[in-house]
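# nightly structure sweep
# worker-07 picked up a monomer target from the shared queue
# config: single-sequence mode, recycle default, output format = structure tokens
# input follows
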Amino acid sequence: MTLEQIKKILPTLDNVEFQLEDGKFVPEHFHVTEIGMVTKNFIDCGGTIRKEEKVNFQLWNADDFEHRLKPAKLLHIINLSEEKLGIGDFEIEVEYQDHTIGKYNLEFNGKHFVLKNKLTACLAEDACGISPQKQKVNLSELSGNNQNTCSPNSGCC
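# output follows
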């Protein structure tokens, strides 16, 4: 989800709710403690120089159980970050601490925002000597021509 996409969704909501992929919700008294632009310049294991830019939201739980972030307030924080920091329309990455600090992609399921687990990957598999995974196919899908097949109890086998 990009910054422009969340800005269009927020005015349609009564509450801002975040849910993890396992169905557990971020406690409703969370804070968005940071919105920023994160730029990652790196070199992959194949020697290719890469640049990644993301908008970063940091969610935090405090002990103020009466706190509720409303959509208008989050939209105000987003607009302020665009104005003061020059943040553009990039993909959003969310930092949230459950057992440890995790980074998540963000999606919307029509009712609330879903923190989607991120996975690591090799960006230069050809340079690392990693063989591509073989495609798994059911044997029943391989028999495109059924003329040369036997049926049970036909005596052909």
